[in-house]
Amino acid sequence: MSIIKTLVKFILSFLLIFVYAFYILPASLFRKGNRSYQNFIFERRPGGSYFFDRNVLYGKRELEEM
Amino acid sequence: MKILGISGLFHDSAAAILKNGEILAAAQEERFTRIKHDSNFPVNAIKYCLEEANIKIDELDAIAYYEKPNLRFERFLDAYIHYAPQGFIPFLKHMPIWINDKVNFKRMFMKNLKSIQGFDASKVKILYPEHHLSHAASTYYPSTFDEAAILTIDGVGEWASASICYGDKNKIKIIKEMRFPHSLGFLYSAFTQFLGFKINNGEYKVMGLAPYGKLNSDQVNNFVKIAKENLVDIAEDGSIWLNQEFFQYATASGGMIKPEKWEKIFGVSVREQDTKLEQLHCDLALAVQLITEEAVLKMAAEAKKLTGSENICLSGGVALNCVANGKLLKTNMFKNIYIQPASGDAGCSLGAALAAHYIYFDQPRKATKGMDAMKGAYLGPQYGEKEIKELIQAENLEFQQFQTDQELCDYVANCIKEGNVIGWFQGRMEFGPRSLGNRSILGDATNLEMQKRINLKIKFREGFRPFAPSVLEEECQEYFNLDVKSPYMLVVTDIQKSHMKELPANYESMHWRDKLDVERSDIQSITHVNFSARIQTVTTATNKRYHMLIESFKSLTGYGLLVNTSFNVRGEPIVNTPADAYRCFMKTNMDFLVLDNYVFSKKGDAMDKSMASNSLVTEKK
Fold first, then answer.
1. Is A16–B239 a contact, with Cβ atoms under 8 angstroms apart?
2. Model pTM score
3. How many helices (H) and strands (E) does chain B have?
């Protein structure tokens, strides 16, 4: 059992390294094009705001989505 | 309409249950498992809620989980992308856990529910309100307001770390939010770590340490300036930006801060846990407290501007910062303020259920007038004669049993007057982090030694930490500069000048620890070194027996208030059962334990027989 567990861990680690090297790192190079880029604020905004506008009246749909 | 709310899996797991909008029960998992801030799926809390409400899990109309797991996972992954290559090792370390627990969330969720009772997932709707909606719902819906601005501030939910919402009848609209990694809660936690305390646990200690800092001193002003120049930018609307060059939580790279960088800018080493605290640590604590207050007050002003409401509801971990709450109250920015007593993530279980009831099922809401819908926060389990008798039998205990509340309260009040410390265990357990007179350790606030004694010999915690008073609501203004109710101990204010004592001329220049020994007021044990106190006002409407006890104490001493601290010792959750209470009692130097109307003493024959009346039963099992 422990051999199987070790094997699974090894495969998982390999896969994660693969994901990091071939998805996360390249994506980070083009992060400005990433859909989630707008969620981050990387620079100070002197005189500005760090709030995001939402203006959402919560309804059924907002509670159903996971 | 029967709805179960669940929060947890990160810290402070909890459950709450509603029936037709009425809050029937709520409890934190830690109280059952005895693991502080327990993050496991709240199996015990759910079982308790279902039993208390007499509802089977299949009879529920919905189960509401307090956040959106997919959105949280998305944020987790995005943070690695945007902060790469920082976080490679944590990515490898944490991702398998996330894949196991979080990606397979639904499977894990259902499996746990099935383990509680035979659960048919097709029969019960599972809902996922956003984390900050859960916070917002937890404070707005139980409040007495028909409409209100809602401000939620914590560490982080899915993306949001703070939000400004508006509640109107049964609807909640989110107007603005602040997003990860910029978070006031995380900033406070970062300073907590820098000061050598545990994150998610030591924030209260930082708040308690801040009054020892020297307000307006060069050192404090300098620390604030350094923080603002390097770590944090506070916008006029209260939103903040944290300079990620100084933090490492975005990619979970071990701890909140980059220690070397913090040490360099502040010229102070990271304090190791349990090493000596110095004045500069107090000044750092004060600096972060001042920054927090500035951001909270500005955010509240923005909420006022956006909603135009005269009412505000607060929730989220930062809403447990009673000093900031007190400052907000003093500004008179809002006519009415309501703060959810379980403002941390545990309260989100309740908020999730309330959001499901009012938003998903569109149930009408009528705000309760006069008193909120939290039932004094006494929403946890109650234990009676059966459990107490079992304990007496098992431990072969001597006890005295009182037949009337008045006799019990007169006896206990006399014990307190004589300088004894009492473990007071009554009725339903409180929901949230505060003990409000049902799971409390009580003492005489006028006793000069009481603070030191309870801190060092009973709670086994740092001697600098202050204690809070429970005061008769009708007596509150006699002692404190507070003209509103504070039933949940969430507001700090000053004591009245008439109770202050003159301080020695060298008070300000004293070593910070020596200030504790200076007689500051005639209610010394609850007067912090800056003359502040965190108030709980007590009424007969929410806790009749506790009110009676304080009244009895008043008739003996002239003082209508007591020291009230949570019934636990350092590192342990607040007691839940009579057996927990007895264990805690035996481990500490408490003098008396009161379980319902049974009184137990460590003093053997020292129990004052002159107090005994005809109705008093004294027994030895």
1. no
2. 0.93
3. 19, 22
